[in-house]
């Protein structure tokens, strides 16, 4: 038991896992943020493109060897399925040039992995009906290695455990079906083949998790602000661009909230930057805990934050603002509540043409809120919601 515990500890340390959240990130992708999802999608699509192009060229090119060493009746049938497979790989390669999207990347990887097992099953059926000898027998054995090639290919993709198994299990079942012994003499060969495949799957799973853990670490450092845990401005701009394009294409609403903490400079000047950092951390945590699950919270600069609300119209944005006001942003060092001046801009209602103009409009409304007395929000159409008013309505005044 102690040996197993030591092995487990060694394994998780080699993967850089020190918390249950980090372990869960390797099991499932449900908690992955948009930056890691987009980065994974870009990596997966680029690698699917590379392999699909290689296979689209090599699969039909191998027909030259088939023609030289296999009977005409056999190589002519194999040539047909080779051409179909090559065409399929070419289509997949063409589809990978689209904008990175995780769902698309998963589908393209699944399609690429599906072609080879299907080709393997068809070729195995064709070759089984032939009486071969010499070099032709060796070539026929090469076809049996195709599933192992695809398992080896899986090691090059940053996949969570759940994703890896969804791709590996069908390949494993195809091999089980193809090597299932029809007589006792074939049992030993079937067991050895499956054992080798399981070994490769284990290595592939570890390689995929290692890549994913490294990517999570790198993207986290590059995409998230260390102090507040919010998205960095650079990562936030990518999300704003993407969400704005999606909103225009789908003609759905998209709101953003522009926050500026009131009189924050006075905290730094009076109590020091360490105290100011604490106020920032608490305020950012309150915002992240209050917004919706699919919303993105960005540290835009200093004490300025932007919240991206996909599919939220200006009324829903006002509801989010009210919830944030009721939840509060923590307290200042003197015990008074932290407040913010907030501006709202919504794509459809404000008829905006690009994400920059949306940020500028929300910023302008935030300054209007600040000039009107702070601790309030200016929404679409100039609607004003004061912090005190929201609290009083909650208390029933």
UniProtKB/TrEMBL annotation:
<dbReference type="InterPro" id="IPR029787">
    <property type="entry name" value="Nucleotide_cyclase"/>
</dbReference>
<feature type="transmembrane region" description="Helical">
    <location>
        <begin position="75"/>
        <end position="94"/>
    </location>
</feature>
<dbReference type="InterPro" id="IPR000160">
    <property type="entry name" value="GGDEF_dom"/>
</dbReference>
<keyword id="KW-1133">Transmembrane helix</keyword>
<dbReference type="InterPro" id="IPR050469">
    <property type="entry name" value="Diguanylate_Cyclase"/>
</dbReference>
<keyword id="KW-0548">Nucleotidyltransferase</keyword>
<dbReference type="Pfam" id="PF00990">
    <property type="entry name" value="GGDEF"/>
</dbReference>
<keyword id="KW-0808">Transferase</keyword>
<feature type="transmembrane region" description="Helical">
    <location>
        <begin position="103"/>
        <end position="122"/>
    </location>
</feature>
<dbReference type="GO" id="GO:0052621">
    <property type="term" value="F:diguanylate cyclase activity"/>
</dbReference>
<dbReference type="InterPro" id="IPR043128">
    <property type="entry name" value="Rev_trsase/Diguanyl_cyclase"/>
</dbReference>
<keyword id="KW-0472">Membrane</keyword>
<feature type="domain" description="GGDEF">
    <location>
        <begin position="252"/>
        <end position="382"/>
    </location>
</feature>
<feature type="transmembrane region" description="Helical">
    <location>
        <begin position="48"/>
        <end position="69"/>
    </location>
</feature>
<feature type="transmembrane region" description="Helical">
    <location>
        <begin position="164"/>
        <end position="181"/>
    </location>
</feature>
<feature type="transmembrane region" description="Helical">
    <location>
        <begin position="134"/>
        <end position="157"/>
    </location>
</feature>
<feature type="transmembrane region" description="Helical">
    <location>
        <begin position="187"/>
        <end position="207"/>
    </location>
</feature>
<protein>
    <recommendedName>
        <fullName>diguanylate cyclase</fullName>
        <ecNumber>2.7.7.65</ecNumber>
    </recommendedName>
</protein>
<keyword id="KW-0812">Transmembrane</keyword>
């Amino acid at each position: 038991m102690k040996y197993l515990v030591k092995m487990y500890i060694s394994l998780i340390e080699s993967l850089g896992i020190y918390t249950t959240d980090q372990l869960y990130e390797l099991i499932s992708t449900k908690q992955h943020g948009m930056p890691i999802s987009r980065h994974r999608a870009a990596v997966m699509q680029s690698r699917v493109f590379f392999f699909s192009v290689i296979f689209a060229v090599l699969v039909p090119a191998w027909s030259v060897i088939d023609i030289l060493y296999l009977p005409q009746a056999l190589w002519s049938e194999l040539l047909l399925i080779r051409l179909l497979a090559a065409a399929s790989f070419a289509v997949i390669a063409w589809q990978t040039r689209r904008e990175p999207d995780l769902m698309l990347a998963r589908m393209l990887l699944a399609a690429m992995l599906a072609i080879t097992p299907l080709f393997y099953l068809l070729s195995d059926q064709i070759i089984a009906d032939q009486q071969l000898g010499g070099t032709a027998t060796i070539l026929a054995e090469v076809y049996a290695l195709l599933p192992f090639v695809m398992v080896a290919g899986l090691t090059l993709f940053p996949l969570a455990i759940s994703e890896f198994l969804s791709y590996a299990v069908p390949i494993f079942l195809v091999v089980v079906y193809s090597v299932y012994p029809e007589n006792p003499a074939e049992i030993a060969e079937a067991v050895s083949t499956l054992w080798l495949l399981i070994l490769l799957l284990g290595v592939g799973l570890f390689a995929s998790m290692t890549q994913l853990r490294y990517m999570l670490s790198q993207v986290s450092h590059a995409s998230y602000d260390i102090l507040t845990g919010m998205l960095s401005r650079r990562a936030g701009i990518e999300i704003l661009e993407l969400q704005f394009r999606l909103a225009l294409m789908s003609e759905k609403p998209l709101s953003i909230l522009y926050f500026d903490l009131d009189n924050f400079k006075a905290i730094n000047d009076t109590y020091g930057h360490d105290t100011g950092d604490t106020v920032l951390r608490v305020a950012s945590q309150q915002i992240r805990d209050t917004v919706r699950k699919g919303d993105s919270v960005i540290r835009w600069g200093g004490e300025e934050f932007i919240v991206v609300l996909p599919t939220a119209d200006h009324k829903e944005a006002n509801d989010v603002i009210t919830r944030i006001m009721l939840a509060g942003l923590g307290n200042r060092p003197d015990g008074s509540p932290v407040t913010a001046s907030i501006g709202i801009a919504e794509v459809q209602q404000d008829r905006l043409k690009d994400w920059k103009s949306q940020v500028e409009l929300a910023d302008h409304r935030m300054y209007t809120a600040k000039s009107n007395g702070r601790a309030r929000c200016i929404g679409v159409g100039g609607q004003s919601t004061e912090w005190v008013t929201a609290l009083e309505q909650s208390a029933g005044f």
